[in-house]
Design goal:
Blueprint: E1 3-7, E2 11-12, E3 18-25, E4 32-39, E5 45-51, E6 57-59, E7 68-73, E8 78-83, E9 92-100, E10 117-121
Parallel strand pairs: 2-10
Antiparallel strand pairs: 1-3, 3-8, 4-5, 4-9, 5-6, 7-8, 9-10
Length: 123
């Protein structure tokens, strides 16, 4: 049974940092890429970044390129999103989801979503 669980969300001040975790189980972790998505209040869920099965990080959101980094720990079957310099517009529920091998911008291609973790950036 595939399981995907996000954690690490919190309330932080602008300029702060957070590390989100996406813990998975129940499949061959080395065959999947993991995408990170954000859903802001009243908006659609959008892809931010993705870590492919080799550990390569792809940023689909321009603002993430200079402030976010991704990584994966194959032994723990976990992918991380390290966020620096957080801004109020980063506020939202963050989700991770799985896609076979390589990253893709199309949200519809991702399966096995977690329940999300809330990030609030506010002074």
């Amino acid at each position: 049974q595939v399981q995907v669980v996000e954690s690490g969300g919190d309330v932080v001040q602008p300029g702060g940092s957070l590390r989100l975790s996406c813990a998975t189980s129940g499949f061959n972790f080395q065959t999947v890429a993991v995408g990170w998505f954000r859903q802001a209040p009243g908006k659609e869920r959008e892809i931010i970044s993705c870590v492919d099965n080799s550990g390569k990080v792809v940023h689909f959101e321009d603002s993430a390129k200079d402030r976010f980094t991704g990584s994966r720990d194959n032994a723990k079957m976990t992918v991380y999103l390290q966020m620096y310099g957080l801004k109020p517009e980063d506020t939202g529920t963050y989700y991770c989801a799985l896609i076979r091998n390589t990253c893709n911008k199309d949200r519809q291609l991702y399966n096995y979503w977690g329940q999300g973790t809330q990030v609030t950036v506010s002074s």
